[in-house]
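subagent[fold] <- orchestrator: predict structure for attached chain, return C-alpha cells only, no commentary.
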Amino acid sequence: MSDGEIHVAYGLDEKPPLVKSILLGLQHVAVMIVPATAVAYIVAGAVGLSAANTAYIVQMVLLFSGLATVVQAYTVGPVGAKLPVVMGTSFTFVGAASTIGVNYGLAAVFGAILVTGLLVEGLIGWQFERIQPYFPPLVTGLVVVIIGLYLIPSAMNNVAGGVGAEDYGALHNILLATLVLAVSVGLNMFTSGVTRLLATLAGIAVGYVAAVAIGIVNFAPVANAAWFAVPVPGRFGFEFHPVPIVTFAFLFLVSAMETVGDMSSVTSAEGRTPTHEEFRGGLFTDGGLSSLGSIFGAFPVTSFSQNAGVINFTGVMSRHVVAIAGGFLAVLGLSPKVGAAVATIPDAVFGGAVLLMAGMVAASGARLITLNADLNRRNMVILGVSLGLGLGVATTPEALSGLPQAAQTFFGQPVVVTALTALLLNTLTPGDQSPLFDADDDDTASTAAAPTDD
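subagent[fold] -> orchestrator:
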C-alpha cells in the first residue's frame, strides 16, 4: 500500500463472499435510501400531489436509482464507469423541481429533465477528455469537500428528528443518533473483519431496534402499501418551456461536477483520479438514466456522496457489492410495500449515519487535494476563496436577496459557487494545475493525478 492509498479490503473487481456482499450492499442502501426518497416527498408535498402519486414517484426514484447503479458498475456499451458509484436523486434538484412544479406543473419538470439530462451531461461526457484539464484534483477535491460540508446541516436536522417534526430536537432523537454514531465509529476503529466492514449498517440496525423499543416507529404505511406496482410511461405528461429547460441545464452542470467529485472520491481510495473512460461513462449514466427515468416519472439521478463516504470508511471498493445494492434498490422500486418498510427508519437513526458519512466525504475531498496539489500560496488562496463563498451562500442565503430570482436560484447553490470559483481561479491563475499555463496537453491525465512542484 502506497502513501496515497487507504487500506482497501476488496478491490474494484474483487467479489467478497456472497453473504458478506449482500450485507455490504444493504449497507449502501441503508445509507442513501432516506435522502433519495426524501427528494420525492419534498417535491410532491410542494406541488400538492395525492398520496398515490407521491408513492408512485418514490417508487420510480428507487427503481431508476437501482438501474443506474447497476449500469455504473457493469456498463451498457459506453454508458457506465465500471466503478462502485451508487446513484440516487440529489437535493440539487429539489428547489427547482418544487418551484417549477408549482408554477408550470410537473409536466414541465419532466419535460425539462428529458431534454437536458441527456443533452447537457451527454455532451460533457462525450467531450470530457477535452474538458478534464479544467477539472484537476484541486477543483474536483474542492467539489467533494463542499458536498460533504453541505450535507452536514441536513444531517444535523435529521439527527434532531427531521425539519418540521413535532419532536424536533428532543432528547430521544439526539440519543438515537449518538447511539448510531458511537456503534459505527466504535466498530470501525476497534474491530476488524466483517464487523468493521459492516460498521455503518450495524449502527443503523442498533439504532432502529432502539427506536422500535421506545415506540417511535410507525408501521402503518407498510400495511397500507401495495406489494407490487408497474411503472407507467408519461404518467404526468410532458411540456417544454424555456425557463425550466435553462434552469435544469444549469443544475445538470452542477450534477456533472458532483459526479466528477464523487468519482474522484471513490478512486481516491486507490490513490488515483478516474480515467477519461471512467469519467465519460459515469457522466453518460447520469444524463442518460435521468432522461430515461423522467419518461416514467423519476427525478434526476446522480452519484451519491454518502456512499462514496461508505467506500472510504470501510475500504470496500468492489463494484460487485454496489451492483447488489442497485439490485436491491430496483426491487424496492417495484414493491412499494418493501420500500415503505425501509422508509420507517426514523430520521434521527438515519441522521447519525449520514453525519458520519458527510464528514468522511469532506475528509476524502481534502485528502484528494493534499495528495495531488501543493498547498502553496496560489492553491491556498483558491481553497480559501472557493470554500468561503460556498459556505457563505450555504449558511447565509438571504445575503443574495437583492439579486433577481433566477440569479438567487443559481448562485444560492453552494456546490455551484465553490466549483465555479475554483474553476475560474485555477484556470486563470498561473500554476501547475492550470490548463492554460503549465499543463502538458499530451500528459494531462498524469499531471492531474500526481503532485508536481509549483
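orchestrator: received. Logging for downstream: Confidence is low (pLDDT under 50) at residues 439-454. Residues 18-47 form the longest helix (30 residues).
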